[in-house]
Amino acid sequence: MKNQLKNIFKSRIKDKKFWVSNAKTLALMLIIIFSITQYQQRTMIDGKAPILSGIDYSKKTTLVYFWGSWCPICKTTSPFVSTLAKEKDYNIISVALSSGSDDEIATYQQGNDYQFNTINDDNGGISSTWGVNVTPSIYIVDTEGMITHTSTGMTSLWGMRLRLWWASI
């Protein structure tokens, strides 16, 4: 039985139809993912970044992270943002959307060991100014205060590092 499965697998790998079919499926998946991402980012602002309380964009490249304590994808992304904040190579500021009072947000962050500064956007004014409709949303702002990169949804630590590095060269 094991040899039969091995032979079937080997013949599938050599089969051109197998590769063409999988390439088409992969291409379709990438088009769908790209389209969804573009749709989610349609309202995100570009150009000059709005002022955020206590942030001086001119000192370091800045990552602005919009998140919610209720957001399941943010629970994957927030630890990466926290890691970047601990490294202190960049400004990291987060904006919590619909996540309760300042005390509730602080308790949530402490309970999850999130080490990033957070502004409470309890009325949605900040997220509206930035054009945020999806969490998580990330903006990279260079030292001239210009937004260089935007992203929504799940991202990796290395993806954020790469965007921050690119904006700082």
> How many domains?
2
Q: CATH class of the largest domain, anyone?
A: Alpha Beta
The end-to-end distance, rounded to whole angstroms, is 57 Å
CATH architecture of the largest domain: 3-Layer(aba) Sandwich
Mean pLDDT: 90
Share of residues in strands:
15-25%
Shape: elongated
Count of helical regions:
6
The fold-level CATH name of the largest domain is Glutaredoxin
Helical content class: 40-55%
N to C succession of SSEs? HHEEHEHEHEEH
Largest sheet: 6 strands, mixed
Q: What is the alpha-carbon Rg in Å?
A: 20 Å
Structural class: alpha/beta
CATH homologous superfamily heading of the largest domain: Glutaredoxin
Number of strands: 6
Biggest sheet, spatial arrangement of strands: 1-6-5-2-3-4
Low-confidence stretches: none
